[in-house]
Amino acid sequence: MCAAVYVLSTVTGYVLTSALLLKCPNLLYRKKRETFISRHISHRGGAGENLENTMAAFKHAVDLGTDMLELDCHLTKDEQIVVSHDASLQRVSGINAHISDMSYAELPPYLCKLGVTFQREYFCEGREDKRIPLLRDVFDAFPNTPVNIDIKVNNDMLIKKVSELVVKYDREHLTVWGNASNQIVKKCYKENPRIPILFSLPRVLQLLGLFYTGLLPFVPLKEQFLEIPMPSILTKLKDPNRLSRSQRFITWLADTLLMRKALFEHLTARGIQVYVWVLNDEEDFQRAFDLGATGVMTDFPTRLKVFLDRNGISKPK
Question: Domain GP-PDE: where (predicted)?
Fold first, then answer.
């Protein structure tokens, strides 16, 4: 009887303490310093309105007032940091070659029309600008705009050179970097711990485990940005009639586990921004912000801008 009472009181104390700290994490942790807050994030510069990862796309998004540019980096044969999502040039330029095997001067332009990954059966047609830009071009053109850098390959030289460029342009307070790979994120943090990092995929899974066991409020987190997909958008990216029952169940389960307002609010209170990607319609914009997401990443910066303005959603003071 005494043992049962002890166990019950211990479990009750743990649950109550966990619940309290989940709601009020600043009782245990100092809130991380936020040098910028992003509501409006342009995925690949806005791949649905201009050719992805081009200077034209970035300029259009910045002119609209985007809070952040999201882009991807690779290293050329002559060690130039280029902004491109794919390691291969096949999809974007129609050439069977890899960026790492060519010098920057040899890189071909983008095709005139590219498919938009997160908008089913949608293609974006380019205008004059079809050049693959250098990362330094982006830093030169938009010195005050936060940039979210996806380090696409596990390459020590790429990580080192991106860090050097960020430092050269005095952008450590305006940059976040990382990748789904935990190994890449660890290397980024080791190379330059002053640049905020993203949660890798293994760390996202660990985060969920901590959240659902009640341990999250007790665990320190070095990451400052959580970027996660909204799993339910899978039903919009594929023909619903072609999704199997198991695919629908997995999508529902992932969405139920990941899209949690209590989790988003806890992280936000600790100074960790939550970005949901890649959302391209108003229904998903609304759901993300209702759940407490800090910001939304989109291929259509104009759509998101109109939504934010109409709903009076602005950056917190």
Answer: 38-308
